[in-house]
Amino acid sequence: MLLVGAVLAAAFAPFVYAELMPRLEQHVIVDPTPARIAKGRMFDDYFVVQDLGAGTFAIGEPRYYQQNYSYLIIGTKRALMFDSGSGTRDIGKVVRSLTRLPVTVMVSHLHFDHFGGIGAFDHVAMIDLPQTRADVSNGRLRPGRYAYLGFWDGRSAPATRITEWLSPGAVIDLGGRSLTVLSTPGHTPSSAALFDAADHRLFIGDYVYPTTLYAFLPGASLSAYRQTARQLLATLPGDTILWSAHCCRKGEGVAAPWLTVKDLRDLDRTLMAVQAGRATFTGFYPRRYPVNDQMTLATGFPWNNR
Ligand SMILES: [Zn+2]
To answer: Which residues are within 8 A (CB) of 47 and not within 5 positions of it... i.e. 6 or more apart?
Structure first.
């Protein structure tokens, strides 16, 4: 009986871990002390705004334990907000202080720290995939328990009306600048990124970010990670900056997190070694594989997250 339990736990380790997470990693959701930021300016005592130039702002939540960054990308006719924040505070106030243009929000993926603030927006765009369509009922999209994971913070998933479905490859015209929608599975099956071809910027969400990559939760897939890395490496200009969603870069302090195409190449190499069984790791679950000085890849057992 004990053996059967152990086999089941190992087989469903990503789900078991997700369920146990609130007890395994206890944390304060909002740090009660003032934020110590390295770049940008505080909007209030919670949000930080960092001007990235060319009508692009990073909006961070430095006191929130996930240290999320969302991105406001402004054209001449409309603006796009990539990720809605955690919903811990109303991010809409920050957005309205930065632009008067109509704003459409699109999330990088459905985890609570990116989708939790969706209620602040009237216009919601979503990547058009079978997985995201499957979460719609009665005209509203509501992510499932393991797609949202908000129970970690005791939050239930919002249900939102999608006003615009965007297929992979679709181009969002903001007036004077455009963004291409990319399907970038790996961290989750329906993860999306936005590419600004004119400025060589890729808004990448949680596919990569400095610190530890979560490739061990339900829905994460190493083969999808690899395929996405390959596709990005084959198409991105070499000088593209990848703006990601979780702080912080080593040596930079609390600031909008960024990576380079070289980091993608390092990740691809690590994924290849992990899949070939010739990479060394630390820890039991998740297994932690060093990628480079900015990133660690955390995966499940070899039979999970394939
Ligand atoms: Zn995240």
So the answer is: 59, 60, 61, 89, 91, 94
